Amino acid sequence: MAAPIPTSLTPTTETLNSLSSLLLAVNQEDLQKRKDAEALREKLQGVNGYVPCLLTIASQSNAPTYLRHLSLVAAKDAVFNLWVARRKTPICDADKATIRQMMMTLIEEKEWVVAVQVALLIARIVRTDYPQSWPNLLDDLKKAVVGGSPLLKLR
């Protein structure tokens, strides 16, 4: 019997390890394991804290690049499917605020493959949130660029 889907997730070591294993299972060669993992990942999309946990994985510079990339692809998928309030289980406002904050820290990513996913995720959120729900976006971006790394200034 499968474990019940939690009502919320917090970025504990156990949760992050479980999500990391799930992300890796989605890319398994075994078709049944991959389908099971994908079904679980889809169910977790509607759980509060899911995307912030994925972004926590992505922010861990000591994690393998492919895992960080997978976590951002999964976050982007969840944002695409659930950011807008008319969806069946939209991402809650508290998670949206957390996600916006986390994106501003991830914007300085050094790994190109990860940085591209960060940029795509920010662009997706901006399309729906700016200027009404994210009025300080331009100020946040300016602060990130002015105070950021030389690499960020080049991008």
Describe how the helices and strands are arranged:
Layout: H1 13-25, H2 31-44, H3 50-59, H4 65-82, H5 93-106, H6 112-129, H7 137-146, H8 150-154
Helix pairs in contact: 1-3, 3-4, 3-5, 4-6
Give an overview of the whole structure.
This protein is an all-alpha fold. The protein has 8 helices and no strands. Helix 3 packs parallel to helix 5. The longest helix has 18 residues, at 65-82. The radius of gyration is 16 Å and the shape is globular. The N and C termini lie far apart (48 Å).
Strand fraction: under 5%
The shape, in one word, is globular
Distance between the termini: 48 Å
Q: State the total count of DSSP E strands.
A: 0
The main sheet comes to: none
Spans where pLDDT lies below 50 across 5 or more residues: none
Mean pLDDT: 91
The string of secondary-structure elements, in order, is: HHHHHHHH
Discrete helix count: 8
